[in-house]
Design goal:
Layout lengths: L2 E2 L17 H7 L4 H18 L1 H17 L5 H21 L4 H4 L4 E4 L1 H9 L4 E5 L8 H7 L4 E5 L5 H14 L2 E4 L4 H10 L3 E5 L3 E2 L2 E2 L14 H12 L2 E11 L2 E6 L23 H20 L6 H7 L1 H8 L2 H9 L1
Parallel strand pairs: 2-10, 3-6, 3-9, 4-5, 4-6
Antiparallel strand pairs: 1-5, 7-8, 9-10
Helix pairs in contact: 2-3, 2-4, 3-4, 9-10, 10-11
Amino acid sequence: MRTQRPAGGQLGRPASRPTTSVGTHRLLRLAPAPVVSWVGSLEARLLRAIRPGRRRHLKRLARFIGRFRPDLPPERRWEMAVRCLDGISRQGAEIALGPRYLRSRYLTIQGRAHLEAARASGRPLIFCLVHLGNYQIAPAVMVSLGVPITAIIYPMPKPADQRNVTAFRQRCGVETLERGYGGAAGALRALRRGRALMLSIDERHNGRINAPRLGRTGVAEAGNISIAVRLAHATGALLLPIHTLRSRGVHLTLSIAEPIDLTGEATGGAEGRLRPLADPELRAGIDRLDRVIEPVILDNLDQWTGIRSLMKDRDFRRREAEPASAKSGAAAQ
């Protein structure tokens, strides 16, 4: 893991990424926030109109949403799929705003009292982010509130996307760590330097969305959700679930949930080492964190970029390939 101060990248590996070009981003920096967000939405509408593959993808996405919302008619599922891709394109454009977004009237912050209580405790902080709304702004918002953030990221596949997000992070003063070999050690060092850690806990890694479980077994024991819980036990850190939601257009609300205390200990009384995953206390902590994020995601599937990766998740693909008799047998168990 390399430390970059400051740098950019992708928080986890969600289902999508910004597509707006670097040149367009430079022009958008001069435009008002609603115009910037509208340009992103326009891109999504144009792609839907000129690319037949985009409409086919929307149909598949709408059908997949029906697995979790069978109560909705097909028209509503289609609308949710359209809103999902619209939000992704808006996000790609909105990061051009940089610090202007953080100071604008289009951003509302809920749960400041939870943040202040956690900071007043003197404990290390680990922000557990999910890919809802415009999740890219979350680390920058914390920096603007005076919280020194180190975000764990993945390198992005497209160079243009990498440059756009890197520029955004640089302008907002976010420190990043690339996830990789030695990642836990780098995160421990950041926490011991007095920095708060932010990592996505619904990331896609090795062909799988590790959280939330969504009826699957065994998945949450891997990935960032387990890293967050292990780090909390090792350092006495408080876990703060965090997400953003889009109310309309460019308007976003960032919500900070009540801190989760897994250890009940101050920093000095923590263990200072990572426990093995088989530890039952770790599994209980993972379950507790998973129960917090799953309802939020299920209530906002049209804003969760991870839904597109979930379509490719090997667990769900395996279910689709199973004969109906095998599925019914598994359900009976």
